[in-house]
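Technical annex B. To support the medicinal chemistry partners, we prepared a structural model of the target in complex with flavin-adenine dinucleotide, based solely on the information shown next.
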Amino acid sequence: MADSNYVYDVLVVGGGNAALCAAITARRAGASVLVLECATKDFRGGNSRHTRDIRYMHRAATDFVISAYDEEEFWRDLLGVTGGATNEHLARLTIRESETLGDWMPANGVRWQKPLRGTLHLTRSNLFMLGGGKAMMNAYYDTAAKLGVELHYETEVRELKISDGDFLSAEAACNGRIGTIAAKAIVVASGGFEANIPWLKEYWGEAAENFVIRGTPHNQGTMLKQLLQHGAKPVGDPRGCHAVALDARAPKFDGGIVTRLDSVPFGIVVNKKVKRFYDEGEDFWPKRYAIWGKLIAEQPEQIAYSIIDSKALPHFMPSVFPPIEAGSIAELARAFEIDPNALVSVVDEYNRSAKGGRFDPGTLDECRSEGLDPPKSHWARPIDTPPYYGYPLRPGITFTYLGVAVNEQARVVMQDDRPGKNIFAAGEVMAGNILGRGYLAGFGLTIGSVFGRIAGREAARHAGF
Ligand SMILES: Cc1cc2nc3c(=O)[nH]c(=O)nc-3n(C[C@H](O)[C@H](O)[C@H](O)COP(=O)(O)OP(=O)(O)OC[C@H]3O[C@@H](n4cnc5c(N)ncnc54)[C@H](O)[C@@H]3O)c2cc1C
């Protein structure tokens, strides 16, 4: 347990990317810093340890990105995915400040690698971490420890004492003991509430019981709830979340990146009632993969099945679970315990509608269905070449969008629009200021890194450094 008799300069709650960026920055400024992380040492690093790449602004190609990605293009991409649900001032600040991350991260132990094949067309805009997020987090923890940041694991902050926007102290639990931690400033970097099924049920009803959580079970939103209860201004749609199509065989929590399924555009998807429910070939998968979680969440029992044939297999990155294989469509249906006759007739109808045209997985090709409802706009080849394959799909929640409002100093803004005195937030807990809707691959880390550094700098400044 951390020292209850000592007043730290900066208390950082959380142990992911945003937290460590804040802790390292505050410590380098000269502040005494305490990091409290819920997870055990082995599982430290929250959702950040599942990441692979980070989006950043740059003016020219480097050894690791193939050409420039400037502020305006970055901003346009963000506008495109959010449809305007973003705070332009904070978004542009994030974009501009991201330019220094290409050097800051290696200066703190992160190493880059060239992008691998099949990485969602990110070779221009995103940097890939060697060893992924796990190696990145290990590097940050190592740097923080060497700088003298005090780190405590298996310590859950449960309550914040806040009076009129002024943070006083935190109640933390460790090994059954509760302690009070005092600090001159606090940085809340404890992620979203995506692992809190009862909270998700408030917006999604019983369906949330069938959601799979892609990341850490520790992101329960306890700190988010505390800040909101103490008068922080909420931002973001409470029902909003980033959710993808996941292999239904994935573990309930922490399956990470390898359970995502990219087979959807190359076949058809049916629900438990053996009905297609959306255009599987509407657009390139990187632009659509994040809508499929929500689509599946709206189906009976929150389950769906991706059906493909052997022609499709080479066109997507395999996931960790092998597909279910069958010699016929009826056999595949029986393996999924759905109606075989219905699946045969759905596949027949689809095959009759797939009128040919040149198939090209690299473009929005002209291989589209005719007279099918819903249509399949691209990559509509008949499912006719055995063996046939299928994957069961569940909604996989990556993170939630509800958060607290912040200003450009990462200071939490209260409901009367005044900034809190010494309360800062970084990462997923405030990402809704910038990403009100949709998602840009690699942007979660950008927001957390930029606002983590700002929060660390400003918290240290508040403490007199
Ligand atoms: C499978 C997967 C892949 C992803 N891939 C990418 C990618 O490649 N690029 C990208 O930019 N984004 C990616 N994301 C999103 C990315 O993980 C997040 O945007 C980012 O990591 C959020 O960082 P954070 O520090 O805010 O939260 P987290 O990294 O989740 O850290 C939150 C921390 O707070 C701790 N905590 C929570 N509550 C408490 C409490 N009460 N007391 C103490 N500690 C607490 C948790 O244990 C955890 O350590 C991915 C997410 C997932 C799940």
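Notes passed to the chemistry partners:
The CA atoms of residues 10 and 33 lie 5 Å apart.
The chain has two domains: 7-238+401-462, 243-396.
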